Amino acid sequence: SFYPLGLGINATSSETLSKPFYQKEVLTFSISVSHLYVLCETEFFWNYFKVYKLSFVVVILMIVLATLAQALFPVFSGQAVTQLANLVQAYQDGNPELVWQSLSGIMVNLGLLVLVLFISSVIYMCLMTRVIAESTNEMRKGLFGKLARLTVSFFDRRQDGDILSRFTSDLDNILQAFNESLIQVMSNIVLYIGLI
User: Is 0.90 surpassed by the pTM of this model?
Assistant: First the structure.
């Protein structure tokens, strides 16, 4: 039995194995439509974010710096613990001065590492928050400009709450999603690459 074009779109991969060739084409078409939708969404957001290319470069550099500090922190912590154990042994032997110098050097390095981690994290979080807030503001302006060009019949067919929802709730959801997830995704990708 042949399915028309609109049917079979939600088929799983096990269903597609048992289906004839013409039904697999329907699934392939639906996948390419979903890829097209993702590309359109990506292009839409890129139009707002491309103004901030320099900010993105600085954010990526700060994320790399913070990730490097996160990766080196256990190394310096382990060295500090080892030197602390050596210090206890040196006190028992009566010669702790050399171990104190080594331990103080490691503690200074550990403090500098924490400072680099803090400063780079503050810089990339502030920059990303600013970029996302300004991009969302531009989206609001674009949406308002689009509404100003629409005819009166558009407003007659739609409720006021739906239109206001686009300005407040939907754009705030975009702002919140980008603020939380974009920074997290970028830092996790760099951390994963750094740990490899």
Answer: no
